[in-house]
Amino acid sequence: MAVNAPPAPTETKPAPVYDPNSIAEQIKTQYADAVESTSAQGLVIKNERLLDVARYLHDELHFDYLHNVTSVDWPDRFEVVYHVSSIDRGGAPLTLKANAKREDPTVPSLVPVYRGADFQEREVYDMMGIRFLGHPNLRRILMWDGFEGYPLRKDYHEAYYEEDH
Predict the structure, then answer these.
(1) What's the confidence (pLDDT) of residue 123?
(2) Per the structure, how many domains does the chain have?
(3) Confidence band (pLDDT; 50, 70, 90) for 164?
(4) How many whole angstroms separate alpha carbon 100 and alpha carbon 107?
(5) Total Cβ atoms within 10 A of residue 104
(6) What is the model's pTM?
(7) What 8-state DSSP symbol labels residue 113?
(8) 25 vs 21: CA distance, rounded Å
(9) Considering the domain boundaries, does residue 2 fall inside one?
């Protein structure tokens, strides 16, 4: 009696590594007004669309891993920088950026999409004073509660170091 061998497993090929311009076009197709600019340094996303774009990247394009959240203090604004990637696809992280006004630095929290953003957003808040709207527990994480100011801002001055000793 002949026994049939099980079929050979079919290899699933990972999706090709993404092209940032292609990703930008997909986002623009989905959210026409969301992308402010694209460059080799990443995609600048409008604040009011940041959460929608993050959810689209996560749920539809499978960018399921948030590497980090950081920020840059520019003379006229703050820039919040996110690096996300797809574990299945591999490849270099995709860089998303959102600008925040100096006088009222706020951006939407990405915690609803990337739970790993929780402590990272708190650190950016603590060091730079950028508020993440919708964050479930936005409070200081490195500095004590009574600490005044945001020590990584370029305009921060520590009184002790301003005096001669």
Answers:
(1) 99
(2) 1
(3) low
(4) 6
(5) 7
(6) 0.85
(7) T
(8) 6
(9) no
Residue 161 has pLDDT above 90, yes or no: no
What band does 1 get if pLDDT is binned at 50, 70 and 90?
low
59 class by beta-carbon count within 10 Å (0-12 exposed, 13-18 middle, 19+ buried) = exposed
Calpha distance 165→154 (Å, rounded): 23
Q: How many CB atoms lie within 10 A of CB 53?
A: 21
CATH at 84: 3.30.460.80
Paired with 98 in beta bridges are 80
User: What is the domain extent for residue 72?
Assistant: 20-154
- Is there a domain that residue 3 lies in? no
Residue 143 maps to a domain: yes
Sign of CA dihedral 144, 149, 155, 156: negative
Q: With 80 as the cut, is the pLDDT of residue 25 above it? A: yes
Residue in the structure block whose two tokens are 């915690």: 111
Question: Do 126 and 148 meet the contact criterion of CB atoms below 8 Å apart?
Answer: no
With a CB cutoff of 8 Å and minimum separation 6, the contacts of 80 are 69, 70, 71, 97, 98, 99, 100, 107, 124, 130
Spatial neighbors of 138 by CB under 8 A, at least 6 apart, are 109, 121, 122, 125, 131, 132
Please report whether residue 63 resides in a domain.
yes
Residues 57-82 pLDDT 10s: 999 999 999 999 999 999 999 999 99
